[in-house]
Description:
By secondary structure, the chain is an alpha/beta fold. It is 46% helix and 17% strand. The protein contains 14 helices and 13 strands. The protein has a 5-stranded parallel β-sheet. It is globular. The two termini are 24 Å apart.
Amino acid sequence: MDIKELNERIQQESSFVELLSLEMGKVIVGQREMVDRLLIGLLANGHILLEGVPGLAKTLAIKSLANTIKAKFSRIQFTPDLLPADLIGTMIYSQKSEEFVVRKGPVFANFVLADEINRAPAKVQSALLEAMQERQVTIGDHTYFLEEPFLVLATENPLEQEGTYPLPEAQVDRFMLKVIIGYPTKEEEKIILRQNMLAESPATRPVLDSADIIKAREVVREVYVDEKIENYITDIVFATRYPADYKLPDFKPLISYGGSPRASINMALAAKAYAFIKRRGYVIPEDVRAVCTDVLRHRIGLTYEAEAENITSEDIINEILNTVEVP
């Protein structure tokens, strides 16, 4: 299939994106970037971590997205006393059949909202890690596969540190995107005020089902990525590992570790999904730049020297994007 035909097909296949955005727009005011990132995760089959202060509609956005799709949704409020069995399920003894039977936990859903994920201890995190990476859960001697689509949408509060457990790097790396949520504008806040003072709050309705999402994911995989774009993605990721090779020697003492191959894979997939949202059948450098920060911000380790100088991973990513040659 040539690019012109592919482009026309993608334009037809991606028509539902506007419908999803309109439905979410009934409930979510502004936060266009957050909505786009949720759609990227949905279409590219990648988990998403949302970070922001309380009250910025993180949980509401995830619930609204799940409500627009006819699929099973579950919410897990993570707490320090949570056990793996509370997440994945456990074996219980049935007096009727006189044998142990499996009672599945809330992770057996299409959309799993992991609220305040950094409040759960290591055992719970490791149970969730298997579900996120392997798309399966082990209970007793048996392994159970999770139904597609399966998406973990997690929230994290950056302010409160009491009673929290920093997520291990291995788990953070399983999230395709880490999205930082900012405050709304003054005009958006006025609309939020008016909506919340109405007698009946606006609500979303289902416009797609699970089969539509699985089909859309197959189409997203067909979005064309030129070799020049592949080189651009690998150059960006390699610049986080070997900054001196990319005329950024000052960054060498600031970066303890760079992006893994998973960063390159996720950047390519996220760029494909972003092109699909923009109703294009091919990836351009602007698509890569649009998703780059969210893909890399949690994959760059900073040294004590960087923290002492108040240099963030976003600062490093911006400088890399300004330095690496755009095809």
